[in-house]
Amino acid sequence: MFSRKTVIWLCLLAAALSALVVSTQLEGPPRTNEDRVRSLSEDFACPTCDGQSVAESNAVVAQEIRREIRRQVDDGRTDEQITDALVASYNESIDLRPRSGGVVGLVWTLPVIVMVFGFAALWSVFRRWRAADPRSATDADVELVAALRQERASGLSDASDEWSEDAGR
Known about the structure:
Blueprint: H1 4-25, H2 33-42, H3 60-74, H4 79-89, H5 102-131, H6 139-168
Helix pairs in contact: 2-3
């Protein structure tokens, strides 16, 4: 049914996908409130710092956001409620986690889809190239080669006649 090579490639693909799933699930949810505060702080950008999360920054506004996150965690609010409150207070650019809906979802999924279709197209083209026998010539190829050989042979004999005439002088 499947060639040995295809089975090997399918096993490698399954192993890679399994490793990806396991690696994303190893961390698990935070276990304590302090872990939740740290995890949430890493998900928000410091509004006054370039490229730092609230957890990394020592800016006054980052410290205030950490205190607000800690207060809301202690009050029993969910991560989504805390995220919504911070986004409403500061704006959506503070949230470092990409949203999964709308245009942002397309930005994250479209390149993956294009790559999958690209690899499928390459695989299809390579299979067709491999299936084609490049050593078989068509009748038109045979006729073209024969005509070129005949032309070359007649051209060589004309050139040799001219050479012998030049040599005799």
